[in-house]
Amino acid sequence: MKFNPWHHVTVGEEQPNVVQAIIEIPQGSKAKYELDKASGMLKLDRVLFSSVSYPHNYGFIPQTLGEDNDPLDIIVICQIDVDPMCIIDAKVIGVLRMVDNGEGDDKIIAVAQNDMSVNHINDVSELPPHLTVELQNFFEDYKKLENKVVVVEDFQNAEIAREIVSKSIKNYNENYEQIKKDYKRN
């Protein structure tokens, strides 16, 4: 059985409060990397059309399934850019609710658990106001030149974000039960 980080890395022992995030895109990148679900490899999906770059580290939470039938997206705020495919312990502090191409596409917001400069933050309401404006602006603009519409709804607190994480773990377990059984046998 080949290794696939979506299926074979755990969501974390302290979920839904702290999850393991797998970084696909380091902060500052214009490259839109994405996990190739079939191979488990990182694939260059596209170079962003707009003159923006990812404001924070971006990736997914393993063993989760969001409304868009992809792993649940996560933004990890950290003072450094984190290399792609790095696992980072991420404390869930909120969620950015959005709709992309007519589907729910929640972005969990977290801080790096092992970064003293941000790990004291417990809720999205504690972030500097400019940071949330920056995130909202990025997600509203990053697909405009592709003529795609993204609707950023609002930021919601850590409690709602943890509920979304829990629901996405349940969705994953219901849809990928056999993969988990096969992996545990090997």
Task: Describe the protein.
The protein has 186 residues and is α+β, with helices and mostly antiparallel strands. The chain is built from 4 helices and 9 strands, in the order αββββββββαβαα. Strands 1-4-5-8-6 form a 5-stranded mixed beta barrel. A two-stranded antiparallel ribbon has the order 2-3. The longest helix has 18 residues, at 158-175. The N and C termini lie close together (8 Å). The mean pLDDT is 91.
Question: What structural keywords apply?
Answer:
24% helix, 186 residues, 9 strands, 5-stranded mixed beta barrel, globular, 4 helices, two-stranded antiparallel sheet, 32% strand, alpha+beta
Short note summarizing the structure:
The chain has four helices and nine strands. It has helices at 5-8, 129-141, 158-175, 177-185, and strands at residues 18-25, 31-35, 42-47, 57-61, 72-77, 87-100, 103-104, 107-112, 150-156.
Low-confidence stretches: none
Note the beta-strand portion: 25-35%
- The mean pLDDT is 91
Helix content: 10-25%
Q: How many β-strand runs?
A: 9
Principal-axes geometry comes out as globular
Q: What is the H-and-E element order?
A: HEEEEEEEEHEHH
Radius of gyration: 16 Å
List the helices and strands and how they pair.
Layout: H1 5-8, E1 18-25, E2 31-35, E3 42-47, E4 57-61, E5 72-77, E6 87-100, E7 103-104, E8 107-112, H2 129-141, E9 150-156, H3 158-175, H4 177-185
Parallel strand pairs: 5-8
Antiparallel strand pairs: 1-4, 1-6, 2-3, 4-5, 6-7, 6-8, 6-9
